[in-house]
Amino acid sequence: MQFRYLGQSGFKISEITYGNWLTHGSQIENETAAACVRAALDAGITTFDTADVYANTAAESVLGAALKGERRQSLEIFTKVFGPTGPKGHNDVGLSRKHIMESIDGSLERLGTDYVDLYQAHRYDFETPLEETMQAFADIVRQGKALYIGVSEWTEDQLRAGAALARELKFQLISNQPEYSALWRVIEERIVPTSKELGISQIVWSPVAQGVLTGKYLPGAPHPEGSRATDERGGAGAVKRFLTDDVLTRVQNLAPIARELDLTPAQLAVAWVLQNDNVATAIIGASRPEQVVENVKASGVTIPTELMVRIDEVLGDVVERDASRTSERSPSTREA
């Protein structure tokens, strides 16, 4: 396992992060979830990402139980705040001071730790003054409940404003967590250059494009039984945008490139995002321990320039590059 610095800080994380969105507390049994976490630890992963909104707080509890007994100082635990949780009342959502200060305590209790290494604003909150949000984060850092602060799916203007306030309040905004894969490259034009300027790294999710870049979805064929595309409760809506015959045909043509590198298509997809020097880590999920074991082999892989060019040529115009798509991710209102 290789390690990278997160943002302009001295904080190192594993370049493969284990994340439990859509799995822990919902799709898989707790015993299987614990086995996946154990596989991650055995493979050298030290960084774990979750959120209070995942399975309405249950994912944090499952992760906390799975990590119990591990040396806390050897782990990097990330969680997030924004989405509606608990009974989903009018103050159970967003980035108000009330919701943030209550949410961090709930997350710490569920995770079984005194602090998280990184606390992230899961989305931008248009209904709360940014000054209120950043002051709450500053107080949480000063209280020792979080060591660093990050955000997720913020636009370049939001990153600039947040980083400026963080500097004024004497804490570090060191990360952004966007979707990024060989098929979804909307951060490259604006987010990445702005982040480099501000000393912010990317913690990228869905590097395998919801499983599409594994090559398991075939053009013109029924979706594999038990796959995300067949699970209306577990992400079918998110993967649908990639399931066109044109995309799936092009993805099949990546297999020879993966073979040249002695990688599986999934490993190639994870390694591809790690070629971006603004990416600190790629989040992988798993419903079986063996998926973790396979995907960590992407760590430390260097893809030669000529093969990166071939990947671009194979995927062609099915790649989404529209920089404005980031702004679609944060809801204009924060209704519970």
TrEMBL record:
Domain NADP-dependent oxidoreductase: from-to ranges: 15-314
Q: Per its UniProt record, what InterPro entries does this chain match?
A: AKR, K_chnl_volt-dep_bsu_KCNAB-rel, NAD(P)_OxRdtase_dom_sf, NADP_OxRdtase_dom
What Pfam families does UniProt report for this protein, alphabetically? Aldo_ket_red
Instruction: Give the highest taxon in the source lineage.
Output: Bacteria
* Single GO term (MF): oxidoreductase activity
Identify the SUPFAM superfamilies for this entry: NAD(P)-linked oxidoreductase
| UniProt entry keywords in alphabetical sequence | NADP, Oxidoreductase
Concerning its family, UniProt says: Belongs to the shaker potassium channel beta subunit family.
- Know the name of this protein? Aldo/keto reductase
Species, as recorded: Leifsonia tongyongensis
